[in-house]
Amino acid sequence: MFEEILSVIKNSADKNFDEVCLILEKCVNSSSDFVETLKQIGIIPESILHDSTEEKLFSKASDAVLSRAFRELGLKSSVLRERSDSADVIAESKFWGYALVADAKAFRLSRTAKNQKDFKVSALSSWRKDNDYAVLCAPYFQYPVKNSQIYSQALENNVCLFSWEYLIFMLENGVKESKKLNLSKLWNFSEDLSHEVLVSDMKKKFLPDFNDFILKFLKIKSEVLDKSLQSQILSIIQRGSLEKSFWLEKIETIKHYSRKQAIEELIKTQRIHEKIKQIDSYIGSLS
Fold this sequence. Notes:
Elements: H1 2-10, H2 17-29, H3 34-38, H4 53-72, E1 76-79, E2 89-92, E3 99-104, H5 116-119, H6 121-126, E4 133-138, H7 149-157, E5 159-163, H8 164-172, H9 184-187, H10 189-194, H11 207-218, H12 222-255, H13 259-269, H14 272-286
Parallel strand pairs: 3-4, 4-5
Antiparallel strand pairs: 1-2, 2-3
């Protein structure tokens, strides 16, 4: 199904953006190999240009995947249609009366430098509005390794730092909310932990504590989560090989450029014409 998602995105040129988003949702919702898609959706393919329409469509596909994941966990969920200043997904409990908003995140393997603005923790908290919880779903291994302001922001604003890997782990182990299982304890983890953490430790990575809590809460042995995370590491390594091959092929293509092609490509890459237009626009606004 992941390949089908990419095919829809790649063939979206000159098509209405909203219509393509609906096609992507249908694609996600009709998939029979959903967990396999969860294993891939946190990585933006290198073949998708940065800040392009395709990248925006990939983001919309990740929203649809996250929404379905919540439904697989037993919640009611849908993708929100707002374009900015709002969360991507909303979910409601069928049994316990709570509601949450969620934001889906995916990153490129080639991009190593990430900061608090990439995760938008504080913004997600403001997008909660009248809902009870706010959940950020990002790749587990892309969260900052040690200290980061996103951890203090999560504790201060009660934002749950969740991951695609947690969803994989839960679905593979048949976790589903019911009259006996209230998943709000997961979404509220940051609030509970904030009362235990020293001010000096607010920026410290707390995902290991979250791992311990999930295992205790779901009554699953640590070896099961360890195995699931190791399996995902292997999946990421395989994706890494594919993404590297894209750039290696790109190198070979560039080697065969003519001098004229090389100059045009360099000008395009540096966005020189756009920068000139921006200067002209600014100067023009002054007169």
